[in-house]
């Protein structure tokens, strides 16, 4: 089976009702990244950071995978699909995708503030200040904040290098190292981009599908000869 590698971003979940970051009305219009998505913010104002992620977890509980997620999961019938996502929601998994690598962490998980290997599924949406890890530290969102390392990046680069087909869907390609994944693909690997706006890709041989995720995945299926 051909290996179809996907890099997804917040646009993938927009039709599920989850906000993107840099579109009109995006999360970074309402919140300053430096106040809610850095380790310094967590030290300075853990109440605000914790509330930001609790609110997003609450929304995620009511959100459902959209047609784009389901069509991508269905492609596993004909391709060896590897989803590399910048998204911290679990909608790819809930739609049935079986290989999902989260570059920026996962909303549904929390971890020790002193031992990053101590990771736990959060029961429900609310993390409370005072919820401690077994080593006695405050549990924190299992999110890669700005300025923190992206531990899964090496694995993601290896997967991208093996792609027979590479799909970029719903990301503005603003944030590195994730955005640099396209450059790990072999020169022979066709790249498809699904996004109503054209994100900046300077490479040749890119096929742009200027649609939202759901409609774009339908078009991609026919381009890939999946009736
Ligand atoms: N379908 C497909 N694409 C869409 C849709 C949709 N329904 N709606 C919006 N988009 C596109 C936008 O045109 C934009 O290119 O999704 C992209 C969203 O870009 P961003 O809001 O920048 O989100 P993303 O690229 O995922 O951000 C990357 O930045 O803040 C950090 O860690 C955060 O993972 C995030 C990273």
From TrEMBL:
Catalytic activity line of the entry: N(6)-acetyl-L-lysyl-[protein] + NAD(+) + H2O = 2''-O-acetyl-ADP-D-ribose + nicotinamide + L-lysyl-[protein]; N(6)-succinyl-L-lysyl-[protein] + NAD(+) + H2O = 2''-O-succinyl-ADP-D-ribose + nicotinamide + L-lysyl-[protein]
Record: active site: 104 (proton acceptor)
Record GO terms (molecular function): histone deacetylase activity, NAD-dependent; NAD+ binding; protein-malonyllysine demalonylase activity; protein-succinyllysine desuccinylase activity
Subcellular location as annotated: Cytoplasm
Annotated Deacetylase sirtuin-type domain residues: 1-227
Domain characteristics, as noted in the entry: 2 residues (Tyr-53 and Arg-56) present in a large hydrophobic pocket are probably involved in substrate specificity. They are important for desuccinylation activity, but dispensable for deacetylation activity.
Role according to the record: NAD-dependent lysine deacetylase and desuccinylase that specifically removes acetyl and succinyl groups on target proteins. Modulates the activities of several proteins which are inactive in their acylated form.
Name by which UniProt lists this protein: NAD-dependent protein deacylase
